[in-house]
Amino acid sequence: MTIADERIERLQELAADAVEDDEPGLAREYVRLARRVAERKRRSLPESFKRFTCDSCDTYLRPGTNARVRIQDGHVVITCDCGHHSRYPY
Ligand SMILES: [Zn+2]
Fold first, then answer.
1. pLDDT digits (tens, 9 = 90+) for 55-78
2. Residues contacting 65, CB < 8 A, separation 6+
């Protein structure tokens, strides 16, 4: 675990907390910051990070708060409040 990995993990937690506190702007800042850290240090983002960030509006997705989760045709479909869907096999 490198310092970059730890920073990314920490930013992920902060983004999740920001959504919980109804601070979507702050959540986006943390998500973007974490992406930049990963890019600069050439670290890949953890699977959970990719899964719980919206590709369209960069917010952090918390099912039940700003995202809906449905199971459809063997996929998990996560719908962001902005309307963007992400599908993952499970
Ligand atoms: Zn979105």
1. 999 999 999 999 999 999 999 999
2. 19, 20
> 43: CA distance to ligand 1 center in Å?
24
pTM for the whole thing?
A: 0.89
Instruction: State both tokens at 79.
Output: 């719908």
Q: pLDDT tens for residues 22-32?
A: 999 999 999 99
Contact 46, 12 (CB under 8 A): yes
Residue ranges for the known binding site are 54, 57, 80, 82
- Residue ranges at the known binding site for Zn(2+): 54, 57, 80, 82
Could you tell me the distance, in angstroms and rounded to a whole number, from the CA of residue 85 to the centre of ligand 1?
Answer: 8
Assign residue 58 a region (left: φ > 0; alpha: ψ between -120 and 50; beta: otherwise): left
